[in-house]
Amino acid sequence: MATTEKMITRIDVNQRMSSIVIHNKTVYLCGQVATDKFADITTQTQTMLAEADALLVQAGSGRNHILSATIYLKDMQDYDAMNSVWDNWLASGHAPARACVQAAIAEPEYLVEVSVVAAVIE
């Protein structure tokens, strides 16, 4: 019988966190933010989702296999602009369970962050 640690895969690990954790064919991504924290909400959302895409592929998954997402917005006034990008990013019929909340993000320039849980593609 495998030990718990053998059943958990951690990718890009440092002292504080892992970029990806895989357990029981479920992928957990660390919070993803934009590549340019000084960009507008549309660009931040686009690059944040591109970062999530890359990690999902690295983990053996993809955006059509996202089970849940939590989106953190610095300001809810950006909700519609963020959703415009989000809605175009998702394939029809593949919307995950989702929450969107207003939150203070670790660096004040970031406008949006996403945390994703997805299934491994078999």
TrEMBL record:
Q: Which Pfam families match?
A: Ribonuc_L-PSP
Fetch the SUPFAM superfamilies from UniProt: YjgF-like
CDD domains from the UniProt entry: YjgF_YER057c_UK114_like_2
Protein name (Swiss-Prot/TrEMBL):
RidA family protein
Q: What is the phylogenetic placement of the source species in the record?
A: Bacteria, Pseudomonadati, Pseudomonadota, Gammaproteobacteria, Alteromonadales
